[in-house]
Design a protein that fits this description.
The chain has about 90 residues and is mainly α. It has a domain of about 55 residues. Helix 2 crosses helix 3. The longest helix is centred in the middle third of the chain and has 17 residues. The relative contact order is 0.13. Pfam families: DUF6457.
Length: about 90
């Protein structure tokens, strides 16, 4: 099963009406890569989840992913300290 097929299967099971294709999967994976490498590895799933919330509220997927990627890459370029997990997390 490809990742696109997996995404389509999950969408069907969750009764999501929107189609998801390879371009969508690639966009999400690229965003996850930018977050993981520029912020911190745990930022990848969190960042893609936040993209999902934004898209669910009407944001354009391509524009929102590009904006978030720019934020992540800027984090690395600024030489700022990499994000650490919250101390409240078990």
């Amino acid at each position: 099963m490809t990742l696109t097929e997996w995404a389509q299967h999950v969408c069907a099971e969750l009764e999501l009406q929107d189609e998801i294709g390879k371009a969508d999967v690639d966009r999400i994976l690229d965003l996850a890569k930018d977050a993981a490498h520029s912020v911190a590895r745990p930022a990848a799933p969190l960042t893609t989840y936040l993209l999902g919330i934004a898209v669910g509220r009407g944001a354009d997927p391509e524009s929102a992913a590009a904006l978030i990627s720019r934020l992540a890459l800027a984090q690395a370029e600024d030489g700022e300290e990499r994000a650490r997990p919250d101390s409240s997390r078990p």
